[in-house]
Amino acid sequence: MADKWCSAIHFFMVLQSFAGRQRDLSVGKIEVTFGGGFVRVPRMKKYLLLLLLLIWLAPSASLADDEEAPLAHGAYEGDVTKIADGNSIDVDGERFHLLGVDAPRSSKCPKVINCSNEEAKKFLEDNVMGRTITYDYDRMLGRRDRHGDRRIYLYVEGELINATLIEKGLGFADRSRDFSKKDLFLGMEDLARRRSMGLWHLCPVECTGNRACRTKNW
């Protein structure tokens, strides 16, 4: 981005420095040198060139304000500052959702607390809260989904936390969207179900169609 601005400023300064050197008053042209050669630039088109340069630079500037700085291998790094629920966290004060994981909704009934997302939330509080983590986006979805939410793969010391939640039966695989690790997560969910892990052992669970499985909180 800085290189673009430097190139634009240099180009404009060259045009300005030659603004008074008209070789042909009848046509009103300026001769600008680049590497020993000459380029004829009509005086009236000078400002059009400047406008085009600004249009070229503007999108890059707006994207830079919204982009996180990736690590060398393409992932991102940050500190977990809050656990919102069983599949939502704050990283450096910004809200993120764990991609591919659907944790049960919280229940107001204390008798079925283990059938809510409290177990998944507690796992995140014990293993993720306050730690420096790495995260990455899915190439199929990009940085934001259609609702503007940021859905990520969350890693702690190389462990994919999204997968761990499903493997331990603390959450279900999200069937509502396509993503690159969907088959992996569905396989882990099936394994957790057959092993009666977590929610599969404690709670009545319903799985219908392309929607995520649900616990019956009554």
How would you characterize this protein structure?
- It is a single chain.
- The protein has 218 residues and is of the alpha+beta class.
- It folds into 2 domains: 65 residues; 140 residues, OB fold (Dihydrolipoamide Acetyltransferase, E2P).
- Helices cover 33% and strands 25% of the residues.
- A 5-stranded mixed barrel has the order 4-5-6-9-8.
- α1 runs antiparallel to α2.
- The longest helix is centred in the N-terminal third of the chain and has 21 residues.
Tally of DSSP helical segments: 6
Helix content: 25-40%
| Count of distinct structural domains | 2
CATH fold category name of the largest domain: OB fold (Dihydrolipoamide Acetyltransferase, E2P)
CATH hierarchy, class of the largest domain: Mainly Beta
Kindly report the average pLDDT value: 76
Describe the strand arrangement of the main beta sheet, using strand numbers. 4-5-6-9-8
Could you give the count of β-strands? 13
Proportion of β residues?
25-35%
Low-confidence stretches: 18-34, 59-65
Order of helices and strands: HEEEHEEEEHEEEHEHHEE
Net shape: globular
Note the quaternary state here.
single chain
